[in-house]
Amino acid sequence: MGSKRESFRSIKGTFDVLPEESSSDGNTIAGSPSWRHVESVVREVMDRYGVREIRTPIIEPTPLIARGVGQTTDIVSKEMFAFERGDTQYVLRPEVTAPVMRAYLQHNLGQQRAVQKLFYIGPCFRAERPQRGRYRQFHQFGAEYIGSANVRADAEVIALMTDVYAGLGIGDCTVRLNTLGDVDARPSFVSALQDYLAPHVSALSETSRRRLEQNPLRILDTKNPVERELLVDAPRLSSFISDDSRDRYDRLKEMLDALGVTFVEDPFLVRGLDYYTETAFELETAALEGAQTALAGGGRYDLLAEELGARQPVPATGFAAGIERLLLAMKAHDARTVTDARPDLFVVLAGDDAATWGVEFVHQLRRAGARCELDLSGRSVKAQMREANRTRSRFVIVVGSTETASGEGRVRSMETGEEQNVRLTVESVRKLLATS
Ligand code: HAM
């Protein structure tokens, strides 16, 4: 071993989730109690909608993501954590829709149910420039409805998404909605857009100039004020889409109205992944300023399955949401905070004589379902009492040789200060903890 001590820190754009809500270096978003709260609300809402969980690997074949998400997207062209071992190319998944579709096709899930409603919660990786609300490892929850071409599925996915936020106390979200039409409408729109922008190329940013060649639809998504101004009079995708697409879009809006989902139409919403057709949406909050206002996004991706090798088209729609941004929005709203699990009883050991007895008693209480704490470092009674206070334990009992000999002790309520005698059996103590 070298003599110089090396210390390590988490990689930039990643963070630890601690039992505490904050960390000494400020590099955490929320504590594990908040994460667990969010995850449990997500699961509860998914259950209500009959959406079942799927877990796919963190690593996937790079070509799956390249083909699924699209070669010219930012995600694939600049943000992949990809590596090679032997002759296999791996990528840390930057999103979960393509992996879920891969799993659906691989396991023939379409044969089991006409519509598979699947959800996931887990980490994703994108090599973006880290900033508030944008990380290199982040977490998504999302739902994919695979097998339905009906707008009812789009409406349900959007309602499901907004229900999660309502369940977490974030009311001020806006759904931005658009239709991208089917792929047949794209080429004529794209060439109209290119023609319109051709005389203004010098005013465009380098990114937009590149997009104009490679992925012109994405220009609509620009945040650059000069470009936004330019786009005001640009041709509109809505004038190029088919009657069928327009009709679908109208029915979707009608259904969202009926479901009480408020939305605003945004003809410039195109999304940063290539697999979308028809419906596209994002969920925004005013609580997060800057570029990271998108809490969630999604849409229909009817062509992805074939892109991934399916012989038949498999219509599908879904959304994904960033958990970090959700937690930041919850903080901004003062929604939550979930108090963490506090112990029911802290057993303070007076002297070593009672130690074995205490360890066993606490063990039995825990097995019987009580949340019990015990000092593990042989500290003084006073220090143990301080610890009991710190953990916000509901009750405390001091046990020494007198108590173990008599089989009785005094339990003190930390809330009221009241004390009462209790027989030192699991049943009696459990009863006391349950009734008080
Ligand atoms: P996305 O818009 O790329 O869509 O990501 C969805 C959400 O993930 C974003 O709205 C944001 O909250 C969060 N997110 C994305 N990148 C980061 C990051 N670097 N740091 C923190 N949060 C981030 C998708 O991923 C699609 N798969 C959504 C979908 C599902 N479409 C159909 N089904």
How large is the radius of gyration? Answer: 28 Å
Beta strand count:
16
Q: What is the CA-CA span between the terminal residues?
A: 56 Å
The CATH architecture of the largest domain can be named as 2-Layer Sandwich
Give me the CATH superfamily of the largest domain.
Answer: Bira Bifunctional Protein, Domain 2
- CATH C-level label of the largest domain: Alpha Beta
Arithmetic mean of pLDDT: 93
The percent range for helix content is 25-40%
Write the layout of secondary structure elements.
Layout: H1 32-48, E1 52-53, E2 59-61, H2 62-69, H3 74-78, E3 82-85, E4 88-92, H4 97-106, E5 116-125, E6 137-146, H5 151-167, E7 173-179, H6 186-197, H7 206-214, H8 225-231, H9 243-259, E8 263-265, E9 279-285, E10 294-300, H10 304-307, E11 316-322, H11 323-333, E12 345-349, H12 355-367, E13 372-374, H13 381-390, E14 395-399, H14 401-406, E15 408-413, E16 419-423, H15 426-435
Parallel strand pairs: 1-5, 7-8, 12-13, 12-14
Antiparallel strand pairs: 2-4, 3-4, 5-6, 6-11, 7-9, 9-10, 10-11, 14-15, 15-16
Helix pairs in contact: 1-5, 5-9
Histidyl-adenosine monophosphate (HAM) is lined by residues 95, 97, 126, 128, 134-135, 138, 140, 142, 144, 272-273, 294-299, 301, 318-322, 324-325.
